[in-house]
Recover the amino acids of this structure.
């Protein structure tokens, strides 16, 4: 009908679409843990999180459970680390940068040192040059798998180089650099071989962080960190001083989901769904955006689109009818790029969204 605007297709999202959430299984898990452990998980508990889930994650990483801290989403844990380490200090981070991480670092008074990330992941030559300067960062923060916003992945040799550079620097200075790995999207890989985690390459001397928001449900808000022992103690103490206890019901629900074997089957379905959506989005680029270039992620939620002709992406999005995306200036100085999320919309909507962007161009 004339006069009606098309329903909005959301390519600006940060997480999984509602149709990818295991609603019935999670509901049953929540009911199970309430019936079994309700008096405990509905009360105050340890600031470090629900003990059975901490123990399970500790088994995955072959560490003591005291090194595992559960947080209200991965970004919350990053904010705790930033508050402990970055006040008046600097952090090396990939550029383009994950905008929410950037906000966290700046909010605590940290200063940013950018190292570019490209199709081959973090540019390690630039990292080496930066670490060779007189500035000594307190932290190096990286998203090595399916980087947000670009979708690029640092391969195994690049990861080994990052670890080597940071650990060698730590051998010659008193103030240790905290190497923080954000692997929120690592388990979503649907193509290619998974490179080793920085945590494994460092012999457990780095910080590993991830989140069940990217794999089970963003609304559960369950992130986790595997930390060196002294840092884990500091993070747990700070968390307790801020909010007493995390959401134990959500953490217990995640534990039950994993313990009953539902996680593996869900991840397999999720990978296939994400592959289909990635393929639909890239095929739509081919069909409707001649002259554009883009990243081809092998997992994760995002791709980085360089618009043909280098227009201002903000203006393109203002003209686009019925589609949202994030323009490049949210993450960098590149105004002619867009970050598109393929995890939140079904394949047919992804193509329709690209058609609307093409019309705006």
């Amino acid at each position: 009908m004339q006069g009606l605007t098309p329903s909005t297709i959301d390519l600006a999202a940060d997480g999984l679409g509602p149709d990818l959430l295991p609603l019935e299984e999670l509901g049953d898990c929540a009911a199970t843990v309430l019936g079994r452990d309700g008096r405990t998980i509905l009360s105050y508990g340890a600031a470090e999180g629900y003990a059975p889930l901490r123990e399970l994650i500790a088994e995955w990483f072959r560490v003591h459970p005291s090194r595992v801290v559960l947080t209200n989403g991965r970004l919350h844990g990053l904010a705790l680390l930033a508050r402990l380490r970055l006040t008046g200090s600097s952090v090396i981070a990939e550029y383009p940068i994950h905008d929410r991480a950037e906000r966290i670092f700046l909010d605590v008074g940290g200063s940013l040192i950018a190292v570019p990330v490209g199709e081959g992941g973090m540019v390690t030559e630039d990292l080496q040059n930066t670490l060779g300067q007189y500035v000594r960062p307190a932290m190096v923060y990286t998203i090595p798998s399916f980087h947000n916003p670009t979708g690029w992945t640092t391969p195994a040799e690049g990861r080994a180089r990052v670890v080597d550079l940071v650990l060698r620097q730590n051998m010659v200075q008193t103030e240790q650099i905290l190497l923080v790995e954000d692997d929120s999207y690592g388990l979503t890989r649907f193509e290619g071989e998974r490179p080793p985690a920085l945590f494994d390459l460092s012999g457990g001397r780095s910080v590993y962080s991830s989140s069940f928001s990217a794999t089970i449900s963003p609304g559960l808000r369950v992130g986790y960190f595997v930390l060196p022992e002294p840092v884990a103690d500091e993070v747990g103490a700070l968390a307790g001083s801020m909010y007493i206890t995390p959401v134990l019901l959500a953490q217990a629900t995640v534990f039950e989901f994993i313990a009953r074997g539902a996680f593996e089957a869900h991840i397999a379905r999720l990978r296939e769904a994400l592959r289909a959506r990635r393929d639909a989005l890239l095929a739509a680029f081919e069909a409707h955006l001649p002259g554009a270039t883009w990243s081809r992620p092998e997992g994760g939620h995002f791709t980085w689109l360089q618009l043909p002709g280098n227009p201002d992406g903000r203006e393109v999005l203002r003209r686009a009818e019925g589609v949202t995306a994030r323009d490049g200036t949210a993450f960098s100085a590149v105004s002619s790029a867009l970050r598109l999320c393929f995890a939140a919309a079904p394949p047919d909507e992804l193509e329709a969204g690209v058609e609307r962007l093409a019309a705006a161009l």
In short: DSSP finds twelve helices and 14 strands in the chain. The chain has two domains: 9-16+264-360, 24-261.
